From TrEMBL:
A Pfam family it matches: Smr
Record SUPFAM superfamilies: SMR domain-like (SSF160443)
SMART domains xrefs: SMR
Residue segments, region Disordered: 1-47
Species of provenance: Cognatilysobacter bugurensis
Annotated GO MF terms: DNA endonuclease activity
Classification lineage: Bacteria, Pseudomonadati, Pseudomonadota, Gammaproteobacteria, Lysobacterales
Domain Smr: 97-187
PROSITE patterns (alphabetical): SMR
Record protein name field: Smr domain-containing protein
Length: 192
């Protein structure tokens, strides 16, 4: 054997194990966290709302409101005294939506999103400016109405009446829009 040759070892792996000493097996890696499950959807509520939208579209009948008519509704869940305060303009509006210039389809989407957002954030009283309908508009390509009834005002009235989370509403006092706006009381969100 030459002087510069390394010592004879049977196996390099044995040499390595002798050098590092005893080893222990590492635990298996924990799997990555699974994404959270999606929140359950209120499918029946969605179906009810879709049905209400369909029935609304076909419900433009003889009970259309005129420009000077006041919007007014009180559910059985709203005490008469609170409704009286609402009619007198004694309840402050926390958020407001202006629908001026919107077409019927856009106004419907905006109002629905606005009310859902208000409920989600715990807002109890909102205002909706719908206008008096004196300048006309279009309803699915047809003229306003043969009698000149305000389209957005009637849309807002029907949509608010069909929502279970609306306790009551009344046209705003004259300084805050009169019959061109409505103040809406929403049911409080239940604690989960």
């Amino acid at each position: 054997m030459a002087a510069h040759d390394p010592p004879d070892h049977d196996d390099d792996a044995d040499l390595f194990r002798d050098a590092i000493g005893p080893v222990r097996r590492l635990p298996d890696a924990t799997p990555p966290p699974t994404p959270p499950k999606p929140r359950p959807r209120a499918r029946m509520a969605e179906l009810d709302e879709a049905d209400a939208r369909r029935s609304f579209r076909f419900a433009l009948d003889e009970s259309l409101l005129e420009a000077a008519d006041a919007l007014s509704y009180r559910s059985d869940a709203l005490p008469v005294t609170v409704f009286s305060r609402l009619k007198r303009g004694e309840i402050a509006v926390q958020e407001e939506l202006d629908l001026h210039g919107a077409d019927v389809h856009t106004a419907e989407q905006l109002l629905r999103a606005f009310l859902n957002d208000a409920r989600r954030h715990g807002v109890g009283c909102v205002g909706v400016i719908h206008g008096k309908g004196l300048h006309g508009g279009a309803l699915e390509g047809r003229p306003v109405d043969s009698r000149g009834a305000p389209v957005l005002k009637n849309l807002v009235d029907r949509m608010l009446r069909q929502r279970a989370d609306v306790l009551g509403f009344h046209s705003a006092p004259a300084p805050r829009g009169g019959t061109g706006a409505v103040v809406v009381l929403l049911a409080p969100t239940r604690l989960r």
